[in-house]
Amino acid sequence: MKNYFKFAELGTNYRRETIGGITTFLSMAYILILNPITLALDTVEDLPEALRMDHGSVFVATALAAAVGTLLMGLIAKYPIALAPGMGLNAFFAYTVILTMGIPWQTALTGVLFSGIIFVILSLTGIREMLINAIPSELKIAVGSGIGLFITFVGFQNAGIIVNDDAVLVGLGDLTDGNVLLAILGIFITVILMTRGINGGIFFGILITGLIGMLAGVVPKPDGVIGAIPSISPTFGAALEPIFNSPGDLFTLQLLIVILTFLFVDFFDTAGTLVAVAQQAGLMKGDKLPNAGKALLADSSATVVGAILGTSTTTAYVESSAGVAAGARTGFASIVTALLFLLSLFFYPVLGVITASVTAPALIIVGVLMVSGIGGIDWKKFEIAVPAFLTIISMPLTYSIATGIGIGFIFYPITMIVKGRAKEIHPIMYFFFIVFVLYFIFIF
């Protein structure tokens, strides 16, 4: 084991790797709570049950997808990087694909499956580098930042801090309501933990807020701490149903946009996370990332597995940097994290009662983390600033990640051509331009 992971070469040992793996798990364990609430649309009232995914089944799918993906990353790529269903991608899945587009969640899972298969193919070829280079870095940053604002907006809504206002669209909620007060308290708790640099601050913030909510009678008390694992049958294999039962529903421009969005966000989010964590761990060889192809293959394979199990796109988590900071340098740390995700399956009784008011602070803080790269956009160049800004602002205002990406990708070639920088536009960006123009013409 030591030789396989090159402990001596990387100056590490079992203790450091184990602590690093545990730290990474604690830093991202919040997804076990947030993902089921998001995909089951627990915060949306008066919604037909047919549009909701089963909460317990999604919990199991989340834990298993994270365990499988993280294990693949550790064994194949040998990186201390954990994977799980991604924040932002699950919001797109639930709020845009299901609620806005009206696509059944089974078909949405098929879209995730197709995007994963395409990602596998790209990971086995040199096409991935071409795609990475085709989209300007400013738009990549804008997409991540826009998703961060969107998630924050959803968090404020879930908390009841921001509510509907017929006069001005949105307004401040009832700050005397118990659930709203609990969410506000949770924000303060989580901000304090994160500001102090406590590993797993988001996860511990959820647990502390939930405990306070239970003591105050706002959050229901669990029947126990450890219990039976929920059935995964409601979602397992659902991604395959549309392929055999209604294949005609798969050949639409609408689903093509969904697949491209899943693929685009996962592809660049993973690439950015891999580079960032590898640099922190000192694993980069010059400007190149060793085993990059294997790492992308592990990520894309996890997305395929996750879709079949019944969850949205699985991606690499930047929270892995917390584990690296604690000493993790090899894939052994990922194995430890994967085992903890498997162990978490037995704790559904306590994790399953967490309400939206408890998880809302986590969404808000995750949004803060996602917009941190916005300084990488050259705001002084108007031809860059316009598509970047419209991408960012359109996501929360239209309540659609795909719409934000589409608007930005339409304006980018226009502003660049007018500025006289047409030669800098990659041909693939013209393809995206045409796809999104058709999307707005025929879908809306």
Q: Which structural category do the helix and sheet elements fall into?
A: mainly alpha
Distance between the termini: 55 Å
Which whole number gives the mean pLDDT? 86
Proportion of strand residues: under 5%
In total, the number of strands is: 4
Number of domains: 1
Strand line-up of the largest beta sheet:
1-4
Shape: globular
Our Rg estimate from Cα atoms comes to: 21 Å
Uncertain regions spanning at least 5 consecutive residues: none
Instruction: Please outline the major beta sheet.
Output: 2 strands, antiparallel
Order of helices and strands: HHHHEHHHHEEHHHHHEHHHHHHH
Helix content: 55-70%
Tally of separate helices: 20
Indicate the topology:
Layout: H1 7-10, H2 14-28, H3 31-39, H4 55-77, E1 83-85, H5 89-100, H6 105-123, H7 127-134, H8 137-159, E2 162-165, E3 169-172, H9 178-195, H10 201-215, H11 241-245, H12 253-281, H13 292-309, E4 314-316, H14 320-325, H15 331-343, H16 348-351, H17 356-370, H18 382-398, H19 401-418, H20 427-442
Antiparallel strand pairs: 1-4, 2-3
Helix pairs in contact: 2-15, 3-4, 4-13, 4-15, 6-12, 6-13, 8-17, 8-18, 8-19, 9-10, 9-17, 10-17, 12-13, 18-19, 19-20
Textual characterization of the structure:
InterPro entries: Azg-like (IPR045018), Azg-like_bact_archaea (IPR026033), NCS2 (IPR006043). The protein is mainly α. The chain has one domain. It is built from 20 helices and 4 strands. It has helices at 7-10, 14-28, 31-39, 55-77, 89-100, 105-123, 127-134, 137-159, 178-195, 201-215, 241-245, 253-281, 292-309, 320-325, 331-343, 348-351, 356-370, 382-398, 401-418, 427-442; strands at 83-85, 162-165, 169-172, 314-316. The strands form 2 sheets. Strands 1-4 form a two-stranded antiparallel sheet. It has a two-stranded antiparallel ribbon with strand order 2-3. Strand 2 (162-165) and strand 3 (169-172) form a beta hairpin. Helix 4 (55-77) packs antiparallel against helix 13 (292-309) and helix 8 runs antiparallel to helix 17 (356-370).
